[in-house]
Description:
The protein has helices at residues 12-16, 20-26, 82-102, and strands at 2-4, 7-10, 28-31, 34-36, 42-44, 47-54, 57-67, 70-79. It is 32% helix and 45% strand. It is an alpha+beta fold and 103 residues long. The longest helix is centred in the C-terminal third of the chain and has 21 residues, at 82-102. The protein has one domain (2-102). The strands form 2 sheets. A 6-stranded mixed β-sheet has the order 1-2-3-6-7-8. Strands 4-5 form a two-stranded antiparallel ribbon. It is built from 3 helices and 8 strands, in the order E-E-H-H-E-E-E-E-E-E-H.
Amino acid sequence: MHYYGNETIMSLEQVLRLKPSEVRILEWVRTYEFLENSYGIDESVPYFLDIKCEVEGVLIRKNRIVDFPEYVCEAEQRFSDVEAALTVFHQWAEEILQKIDKV
């Protein structure tokens, strides 16, 4: 886990263990663009996620990396509470991990 300003960077595996209270405290969490493979080598992941607490609610985004550091937002949803947002955020993280495992 790393901190950059008010943003916390976590691995996809760490995000799966993220709790609503932690999201409220951290306010903004993003996943790494790299994932360690079984040989201990970092491989690029074509997606990254972020969840951010805002005045209007909780914003989650799934971003696809086009040509690092360039990316496009593929999905964006806004929720009134952290619990609902985190449920979808976890689903997206699991989907990305499943795609990576199949490669």
